[in-house]
C-alpha cells in the first residue's frame, strides 16, 4: 500500500512538471498569422491638477498636408525596366459611382463625372435601317408562246413588270394574242397602274387600261379605269382579280390564277386558270353579258437558269352563254384544245 501511494505521488509530480514546461513554451511562442494579439491591461492615469484659466494665444493656421506620394519602384538587381511587374491602378471609390459611398480614409475622395452626352451628329444623311423604299425594277414574261388549235396558229403573250420599293410600285402590264390567217385578227391591251401594299404579299392596284382589237375591217379601241389586286394567296396561288369600267360606262372583270408545283428543282408544273365576265353588252367589241369564256391549262417548264425556262403544255378554252351564241353565228370556234410551246423569262 505504501508503495502504491508513492508511485501515484511520483506520477503527479511528473505530470505537473511536464504541464509547466509546455505552458512556458506556448507563452514564448509568437502568435499565428491572423490571430489577434492580447491587449495589455491599461494602467490608471492620475487626474491632472487644475490650473488657473488662461486665454490661449491665437495659433497660426496649419499648413495643408501634401498628399502622400508613392515612391517610384526601382528594378531589382539583374532585372530590366521591361521586366518589372506592372501595378494595375485601382478604380476610384468616390461618390460619383455610388452616392452613398464614403470617401477613402487617408486620401482625398476623387469625384468623377460619368454623364454620357447624346449623339448630336446630323442624321439627315443616314440610310434607312430597313431600306424598304429603295427602288428596284422587275420584268416578267409569264407567257410568251406559240399556240396551235386545229388549223389556227396564234402568238400569245402575258407580260408584267414594276418599278419601286416594297410598299409603293408603278406597275405596267400587257396581254394579248395575234391570230395568223384568221378573220378575228387578234387583240392587245396595256395597263399602267399604281400599286400599294395593303397586306403581306398583296398589292392594291389602280390605274388605266387601253385595249385595241385587230380585225379585218376595223380596229376598235377603248379605255378603262382599273382597280384590282395582285398577290400570293394561301397555298402559294398567284391570283390577279381586276375590275374594269370603260369610257362608255361598261363594267367587266377578269380573273387569273396560277400555281407552281415543283417536280424537281428544275422541272416545274404550272396549272393556270383564266376567265372574263361582263355586266353589259358591247356590240362593237363582241362582248355579251355574263361569263365570256374560261381557259384552263397546264404547262411544264425546265429552268435552264432561274431567269430562263422553256416550256410546253396544253390549254382548253370554252365559251359560254351569249358569247358562245355570238361566236357560233359568226363562224368562230366555241371551244378549242390548244398545244402550246414557249419561253418564260424574267429579269
What about the largest sheet?
A: 12 strands, antiparallel, barrel
Query: Which radius of gyration do the C-alpha atoms yield?
Result: 51 Å
Element pattern in H and E:
HEEEEEEEEEEEEHE
Average of per-residue pLDDT values: 79
Unreliable spans? 91-99
Task: Label the overall shape.
Answer: elongated
The class by helix and strand makeup works out as mainly beta
**Given the structure, what is the number of helices?**
2
Q: How much strand?
A: 35-45%
Helix content: 10-25%
Euclidean distance between termini CA atoms: 127 Å
Strand order of the largest sheet: 1-2-3-4-5-6-7-8-10-11-12-13
Give a count of the beta strands, DSSP E runs of length 2 or more.
13
Write the topology of this structure:
Layout: H1 2-28, E1 136-149, E2 152-164, E3 168-180, E4 186-199, E5 202-214, E6 221-233, E7 237-246, E8 251-259, E9 261-262, E10 267-278, E11 290-302, E12 308-319, H2 321-330, E13 335-346
Antiparallel strand pairs: 1-2, 1-13, 2-3, 3-4, 4-5, 5-6, 6-7, 7-8, 8-10, 9-10, 10-11, 11-12, 12-13
Amino acid at each position: 500500500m505504501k508503495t502504491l501511494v508513492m508511485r501515484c505521488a511520483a506520477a503527479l509530480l511528473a505530470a505537473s512538471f511536464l504541464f509547466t514546461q509546455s505552458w512556458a513554451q506556448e507563452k514564448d511562442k509568437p502568435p499565428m498569422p491572423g490571430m489577434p494579439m492580447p491587449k495589455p491591461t491599461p494602467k490608471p492615469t492620475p487626474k491632472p491638477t487644475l490650473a488657473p484659466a488662461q486665454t490661449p494665444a491665437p495659433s497660426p493656421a496649419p499648413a495643408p498636408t501634401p498628399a502622400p506620394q508613392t515612391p517610384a519602384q526601382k528594378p531589382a538587381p539583374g532585372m530590366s525596366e521591361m521586366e518589372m511587374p506592372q501595378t494595375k491602378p485601382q478604380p476610384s471609390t468616390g461618390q460619383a459611382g455610388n452616392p452613398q459611398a464614403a470617401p477613402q480614409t487617408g486620401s482625398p475622395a476623387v469625384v468623377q463625372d460619368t454623364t454620357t452626352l447624346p449623339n448630336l451628329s446630323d442624321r439627315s444623311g443616314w440610310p434607312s435601317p430597313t431600306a424598304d423604299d429603295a427602288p428596284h425594277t422587275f420584268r416578267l414574261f409569264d407567257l410568251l408562246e406559240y399556240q396551235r388549235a386545229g388549223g389556227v396558229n396564234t402568238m400569245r403573250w402575258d407580260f408584267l413588270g414594276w418599278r419601286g420599293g416594297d410598299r409603293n410600285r408603278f406597275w405596267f402590264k400587257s396581254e394579248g394574242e395575234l391570230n395568223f390567217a384568221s378573220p378575228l385578227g387578234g387583240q392587245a391591251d396595256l395597263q399602267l397602274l399604281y400599286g400599294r401594299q395593303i397586306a403581306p404579299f398583296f398589292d392594291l392596284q389602280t390605274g388605266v387600261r387601253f385595249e385595241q382589237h385587230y380585225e379585218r375591217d376595223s380596229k376598235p379601241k377603248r379605255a378603262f379605269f382599273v382597280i384590282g389586286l395582285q398577290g400570293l394567296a394561301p397555298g402559294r396561288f398567284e391570283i390577279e382579280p381586276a375590275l374594269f369600267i370603260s369610257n362608255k360606262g361598261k363594267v367587266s372583270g377578269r380573273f387569273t390564277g396560277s400555281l407552281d408545283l415543283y417536280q424537281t428543282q428544275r422541272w416545274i408544273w404550272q396549272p393556270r386558270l383564266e376567265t372574263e365576265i361582263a355586266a353589259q353588252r358591247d356590240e362593237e367589241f363582241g362582248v355579251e353579258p355574263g361569263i365570256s369564256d374560261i381557259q384552263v391549262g397546264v404547262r411544264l417548264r425546265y429552268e435552264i437558269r432561274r431567269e430562263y425556262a422553256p416550256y410546253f403544255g396544253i390549254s382548253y378554252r370554252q365559251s359560254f352563254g351569249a358569247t358562245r351564241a355570238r361566236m357560233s353565228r359568226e363562224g368562230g370556234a366555241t371551244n378549242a384544245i390548244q398545244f402550246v410551246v414557249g419561253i418564260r423569262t424574267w429579269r
